[in-house]
Amino acid sequence: MSFEKLYIRYAQALYQSAKKKGCILPVVADVEALMELCKAPDFVQLLKNPLYRVAKKKALLTALLGKHLHPETLTFLLFLTARRRIPYLHPILRMFQELHAIERKIAKAYLTTTQPISSTLRDKVIAHIKAITSVPNIELVETQDPALIGGYVLKVGDQQLDMSIRTQLKRLQSHWEASHPITHPFSHEK
C-alpha cells in the first residue's frame, strides 16, 4: 500500500466517524491544534521513537492530551498508536483537513511571492481564482520566498502557475544553451 493511500484511509475513517457521531467541529478544532503540535520536535520525537512501546505511547498521549481533546480524537490517536501508524500522524491530519475543505467546498490556493501582498491584491487574486475554478470559497495560503527574485507562484489543486523571475531566467538560460551549444576548442569535431 502506498503511503498516500494509507493517509487517505485513516483520514477518511476519522472524518466519517466524527461526522456520523455529530462531533465534526470539535474534531476539526483538535486536528488544527494537533497540526500545530506536530511542529514541536519533542512531540514528533515521541511519535516516531521506536524505543517507546505501544503501551507507553498510549499512556503518554492520554496523559498529555486526554483532557484537551475530544474523546473521538483521542480514541483515533490511540488507535493509530495501536496500529503503529502514529508516526504518520501529520500527513494523516493534513489529509483530514483536505477532506474537510472538500466537504465545505473550499479550495486551498498557495501563493508564493517575494514580499507580502496588500489586502487589495489579495482580494483580486482570490476573485480571479474563484472565476477560474468555480469554487465559491478560497483559502489563500501566502508564503514569501526571496529566491523568486520577483513575480509569483500560484498553486491551486494540481495546477501551478509559475510567473517568477527566477523561472523566467532559467527558461531563458535553457533556450540560450540549446541554441548556442558550446564546443570545446580542442575537439576534433567539425
The coarse silhouette is extended
Strand % is: 5-15%
Work out the helix count.
8
Tell me the Rg in angstroms: 23 Å
Structurally, the number of domains stands at: 2
Sequence of secondary-structure elements: HHHHHHEHEEEH
Helix content: 55-70%
How many distinct beta strands?
Answer: 4
> Under the CATH scheme, which class of the largest domain?
Mainly Alpha
The CATH topology assignment of the largest domain is Peroxidase, domain 1
Biggest sheet: strand arrangement: 2-1-3-4
Can you give the mean pLDDT? 91
Summarize the structure.
This protein is of the alpha+beta class.
Task: Give an account of the 3D structure.
Helix content is 57%, strand content 13%. With 190 residues, it is an alpha+beta fold. Helix 1 (3-20) runs antiparallel to helix 5 (71-82), helix 2 packs across helix 6 (89-103) and helix 4 (54-65) runs antiparallel to helix 5. It is built from 8 helices and 4 strands. The mean pLDDT is 91. It has a 4-stranded mixed sheet, with helices on both faces. It has 2 domains: 3-102, Peroxidase, domain 1; 106-179, Glutaredoxin.
Which terms would index this structure?
13% strand; single chain; Peroxidase, domain 1; four-stranded mixed β-sheet; Glutaredoxin; 4 strands; 8 helices; alpha+beta; 190 residues
Task: Set down the secondary structure blueprint.
Elements: H1 3-20, H2 24-37, H3 41-48, H4 54-65, H5 71-82, H6 89-103, E1 106-113, H7 119-133, E2 137-144, E3 152-156, E4 159-162, H8 165-179
